[in-house]
UniProtKB/TrEMBL annotation:
Pfam families: Peripla_BP_6 (PF13458). Keywords: Signal. This is ABC-type branched-chain amino acid transport system, periplasmic component. InterPro entries: BCAA_transport, Leu-bd, Peripla_BP_I. Belongs to the leucine-binding protein family.
Amino acid sequence: MGVKVLRLAAIRLWVVVAWICATIVQPAAAAAAAAPNPEPIRLGLIEGLSGPLGNGGEAVLRNLVWASERVNARGGVKLPGGARPLQVLRYDSKGSVEESLSLLRAATDQGVKVVLQGNSSAVASALIVALDRHNERDPAHRALLLNYAAVDPLLTGAQCSFWHFRFDAHTDMRLAALVEVIAQDRQLKKLYLIGQDYSFGQHLRTQARALLAQRRPDLEIVGDELHPLGRVKDFMPYASKIRSSGAQAVLTGNWGNDLTLLIKAARDLGLGTRFYTFYGNALGVPGVLGDAGVDRVLAVAEWHPNAGDSASERFYQAFRQRFPRPEDDYLHARMQLMVEMLVAAMEKAGTDEPRAVALALENLRLDGRPLGVAHQGWMRPTDHQLQQPLYVSIMRRAGEAGVPHDNEGSGYGFRTLRYLDAAQAELPETACRMKRPAR
């Protein structure tokens, strides 16, 4: 009888424990299982990711993916409701203005609050107009436009917008840096201007003439023409014109395949001209030129792999570890800084709401070196133009003094000729009359 009582008590005790577990443990486990992952902050990249200039778009995508990965690796964007990761969404515009506008509507319809674009000032201009209208018409679904490469000064000048921020040095800033070097080359007497026939190329042509007339009135411009953007397959006729003109140097804002094919044609024709370029240090140009580019191709950029300090070296090595293939060697510090400044602004504002983030971005200064970015900048609040250092560099063989790294496994890299700090590279804001939202 006593044994039965003990067994009955044990059973009752087991039932009580089981009830406690069912009441407390199981709901807790179910709640944990049901807890959603933090909603990502989506960055919508609207860029030409296919077609004749798609290689440039894909290279940009790698930069932005890496920047987002590094933010996420340290916990994401720290907001009051909890940390949230970044997610880059790709929207292939194929380089078309109309397609870009359609994709902007798609992105905002999907709740994207930050749009990224750069490879075409014509596209950037259209996006600014469309986004201004969208944000005014639908303030509950506003978005920001962060621009990493569209360099027409009008975008932060007469067309400046509260919703648009540029993280690249604009045409006039880059041009002024190149002209600093041209002005010092007293052996240069004849110069040829060539560019792409859209807003950026058209502005560069006008501004180059004006600035050269100030700094080098003795310099003869022996050629000046524009060609269709992204449509010329054979640049040999243009190279022949350059040779016939007797030009000693070429100044061009060409980028992507338009630059690569132009310099390849010059090489095939045996031209010994120097090329003062905005984008001659990436996307296949050094490999196409080979020895013909040594001491002839100059480029201007906010940074380059041979900039020289320890922070720069760590930054470059980290990127090469993430993207070890030589053909993926296309790293831009400004794109990394853009993402880091966006994150800093969101954390400062305590939200990803576009107006609050825009206000936090204004006047923001960020030294990216503690975050692994070998670059620093200040977002000028009056026109949303980033102020940053610039380098003018010249193509040399890798392994020579000042050139420890090559470009894209080509065996050729760039060495600094002239460094301008942010104050030296800054040009005054003149035309921006920014309209700010009341709330």
